[in-house]
Amino acid sequence: MIVWENMSSQTAKAPQTRFRKRDLFYLMPLWLISLIAPDPYLYHKKEFKKKELFYLAAICFAPLIWSDSHFHHLMVLAGIYAILALGLSLFMGYAGQISLGHAAFFGIGAYTTAILTTRYAVPTFLAFWASALSAALIAHLIGRPILKLKGYFLALATLGFGEIFLVIVRESTSLTGGVIGIFGIPWFSVMGFSFDTYLKQYYLAWGMVTGLFIFSKNLVRSKVGRALLAVGASEDAASSVGINVSKTKLEIFDLGAAFAGWAGSLFACIMSTASPEAFSLGFTILIVMMVILGGMGNLYGPIAGAILLTWLMDILSKYQEYSLPVYSVILILLLIFFPDGVGTRLNVRIIYLIGYWAKKKKRDKGKL
Amino acid sequence: MALLSTEEIIKEYDGIRALDRISLKVEKGSIKGLIGPNGAGKSTLFHLISGVEKPDSGKIYFKGKEIRFLEPHERSALGIGRTFQTLQVWGNMTVVENIMAGMNRRLKGGYLSCGLRFPWIRKSENEVLKEAKEILDSLGLLGKWESLASQLPYGKQKLLELGRALAMKPELLLLDEPASGLTLAEIEQLSQHITKVRQEGVTVFIVEHHMGMVMEIADEIAVLHNGELIAEGRPEAVRMNPRVIEAYLTRRGGK
Predict the structure, then answer these.
(1) Closest chain B residue to A245, measured at CA
(2) Are A350 and A2 in contact (CB under 8 A)?
(3) CA distance A221 to B247
(4) Contacting residues of B for A237, CB less than 8 Å apart
(5) B92 contacts in A (CB within 8 Å)?
């Protein structure tokens, strides 16, 4: 993240000839990345830990370097989307299924928190857990029949579920506030500590992303992850070694919904509103785009995708009426040039980009 | 008592009888071969035994237990391992993970304990990794344990599939055309592995087109032709059986 942001600001300016102290700042990540360079599919533990430490440091220091409240807010949103995309990525990228109803679980989480905190004055921390639980419970109920379907049919069924959720939310005015939604949801707070500034929320959201990322990473590297990949690649082969295919799918669907419930609860607390517009079909497509653009079958992917798309949407929102066509063109280009996703072998890509940038700088120097 | 026995199995596809009252037995500790021309119903029989498809009528007994109504994963939990005619290695996993996934059934731990990686999970993972490497070593695949399974050459992938089936410690191993697409040297290697597996006490039931291999390693051979069992017995006897010769020399259904 550090590297990306700085590069864009650097390349925009006129080429620099003088070596400045700030340049040391680029050398540090370069050195860190050089430690972790041999990325691909190693089963070794050390390689993973070095890489993760680098990203963790980037997350910790990014808001201190850019102490800009807009950036903080943007990253809070990106963090929430990252949680959501992480859950969906387990279901899509690993178990090889597809869900176009994930926004509904996000919505269920948001509304559970909204209703519990505003109507019944439940502490946000409890509502936070209740949201995940209710989302997972509903996922379990609808997953049982729906997950028997495959491919396009599963996509359509989950799409239908998302639409049904929206209709229910819009029509049951007494419970959900109808089209207007629910306002005045309190800030997220734990034991009296309230997350009331963007900076605090940043650390809350990204702390959660980190926690859930480690959880998912452990999961993926254990028996569960192997079962998921097996089901995704070949169901017949999976059942031939004693993996219960339908149970595996259902459980990961529940877990993805629980992640979405958590994200929704956080979203409701941070935006302090919950209205049906936020959970429409467009939002579902956005999450799916995050997972696909970021890279499937890879846990860095959804997080990279979430940051990328949130950032892209924010930049493009300045261009008003042109934003949508430009946005779609960029998506198409990304899909053409990064067919495996942006987050797949992310560190190798970053090295390549830094190398390219350094060479360019050198070339410019030589010219001048 | 036989380890696996089928009684009067019938399977029809759209009125065409793929299997017609098949009754056969696989004795414990033996290698049984199943041969027959293309379309004889060999793979269908395997699908019925492993549970991918259900028979229209008839009974299947494994270890004296009727398994006709069990799901595929429940049957493999009882101890039926299998490989597939079309290669079904999980290409998106590393070689060692393929083997480790084969051991999943024996591992304990749910989502919470795996996600938080409790000490006992860590311990069992390490044990499983070690055991998987031993299996890979015996198959001669240890050199590539960290590469993706899809990057292996075809013959090695076939071996990997065998290793995965062995990893779940089956009592009965169903091999569906393990030698198809392999070179002669690889077939030789494969038959050595299969005889070694039998020495470890695993019963092997094998469908194969490659006559030389089946005749060499099998204790008993059954011959299917147009969904009927036309001969059963020792390899030498089957080889001389006039009906078998006729089935192989004449076109299917023709005279």
Answers:
(1) B73
(2) no
(3) 51
(4) 84, 88-90, 164
(5) 229, 232-233, 297
Concatenate the DSSP letters of all residues of A246-300 into one string: HHHHHHHHHHHHHHHHHHHHHHHHHHSEE-GGGGSHHHHHHHHHHHHHH-SS-SH
Q: What is the pLDDT along chain A (368 residues), one digit of tens a residue?
A: 344 444 444 444 444 445 566 656 666 665 555 555 444 434 444 445 667 777 888 888 888 888 888 889 999 999 999 999 999 999 998 998 999 989 999 999 999 999 999 999 899 999 999 999 999 999 999 999 999 898 899 999 999 999 999 999 999 888 888 888 888 888 888 887 888 888 889 999 999 999 999 899 889 888 999 999 999 999 989 998 989 999 999 999 999 999 999 999 999 999 888 888 888 888 898 899 899 888 887 888 899 899 989 988 888 888 878 878 888 888 888 888 877 777 766 666 666 777 777 777 777 777 65
Indicate yes or no: CB of A241 within 8 angstroms of CB of B101: yes
Which residues 248-267 in chain A show a CB within 8 A of chain B? 251, 255
Residue type, B216: E
Which pLDDT value is given to residue A277? 84
ipTM: 0.89
Amino acid symbol at A107: G
Domain architecture of chain B: domains with CATH: 4-89+154-249 (3.40.50.300), 93-151 (no CATH)
Q: What pLDDT sits at residue A14?
A: 45
Structure tokens at B58: 């008839």
- Count the Cβ atoms, other than its own, within 10 Å of residue B143: 10
User: Across the interface, do B111 and A219 touch by the CB < 8 Å criterion?
Assistant: yes
Strand residue runs (E) in B119-227:
172-176, 203-207, 220-225
Distance CA A324, CA A165 (A): 26
Phi/psi at A98 (nearest 5 deg)?
-135, 140
Among B63, B61, B56, which Cα is nearest to B9's? B56
Rounded distance between C-alpha atoms, residue A124 and residue A187, angstroms:
8
Look at chain A and report how many structural domains it folds into.
1
Which residues 28-57 on chain A approach chain B with CB closer than 8 angstroms?
Answer: 41-43
Residue B92: pLDDT above 90?
no
Residues on chain A touching B147 (C-beta within 8 angstroms): 41
Contact yes or no for B163/B135 (Cβ under 8 A): yes
SS3 A138: helix
Q: Residue B35 forms beta bridges with which residues?
A: B223
Q: Chain A: nearest CA to B241, how far in angstroms? A: 35
Residue A57 lies inside a defined structural domain of this protein: no
pLDDT digits (tens, 9 = 90+) for B137-181: 998 888 888 888 888 899 899 999 999 999 988 999 999 988 888
Domain range for residue A115? 79-281
Q: Does residue A289 lie within any of the structural domains?
A: no
Q: Is residue A270 part of a domain?
A: yes
Instruction: Examine residue A180 and state whether it is found in any structural domain, yes or no.
Output: yes
CA distance B248 to chain A (A): 31
Contact A234 B90 (CB under 8 A): yes
Query: Could you tell me the CA-to-CA distances from A94 to A154, A240, B5, B91 in Å, in that order?
Result: 16, 19, 38, 13
Entry pTM: 0.84
